[in-house]
Structures are given as structure tokens and as C-alpha cells.
Amino acid sequence: MFSHYNWVPALEHNNEVRGESLDLIKFIDKKFEGPSLMPDDPAKQEFADVLLSYTGSFHKNVTASFKAEGMNAEAYGAFDYIEDALSMFDDGPFFLGQFSLVDIAYVPFFERYHPFLLEVKKYDLTSGRPRLAAWIQGMNKIEGYKQTQSDPKLLIESYKKRFLVTT
Known about the structure:
By secondary structure, this protein is mainly alpha-helical. The chain contains 7 helices and 2 strands.
């Protein structure tokens, strides 16, 4: 099912349609059985809210560089922000230490950005960012995520078309 905008996944539950990705993952975490994807620690919950609210700015700052020559300061700043965010908790390689909704929210961006920037801009977003590199490695070890990964070549071609990049 798609939302009324016809471009993002949606979920209908009890005659209610939810179509915003972040709202969807929060709703699923609260309404369905299984281990919670949000920590009990109030400091981690607060930081999760900060990171989740940053996803739109993050995407905008990074994709603004896609049509430009080279990389722009906003993209560098966005990746540095993520590197810093990954240093807040040291009980695992993930944003909140342990795997959470925040990781689920950010991994699609990196799944697309990393190969695209390597191919088109010759830019490795993990260079000089060891926590980001460790996070990507940690995500790539999660079986459920590995099963959903897209072919990087298809992602690169899609982004080239979307952002009108020619090589």
C-alpha cells in the first residue's frame, strides 16, 4: 500500500492509514509485539528524537551536493554530524549504542549515498569517520537488513537519473 501521495509506503491498521516513514516505524514499534526498537534510557530516547528530527535536514544537505561540482560544506557537515552522533554512546556501533529505530531511519540514506558518492564524486564518506565506517559494517552484519539491500549498481543509476548527473 502507498500513502495518499503515492510515493511512500503506507500502513493501514484499524482503518487508519499512516504514510510517513518515521511515523510508520514508530507506530510499528509501539503497536506490535517483539522487542522494542527504542531504548528505555531517557537520555537515549531524547537523543533518538533529536536524530530522527534531523533526517530531513540531513537528506537535504547531502543531496544538495549531488548536482554541484565536488562536495559542498553542507554535505561534509552532515556527515560530520553523523560521525559525532555515533560517538554519543559507547555500548555498540549503533546510534544509541544498540540497534534502534534511529539506525532503521538512517540506513536507507547511506545505502544510497555511499555507492553513489564513491562512483560519481569519487568521495568516500567514511574516510576520516571511523564510527560511521563501523556503523555501516555493523548494519551490514544484520541479517534482516542484508535481505532488504538493493543492488548498488541499480541505486547508482537511479540516483544519476534522479539528480541529472552524467559521467
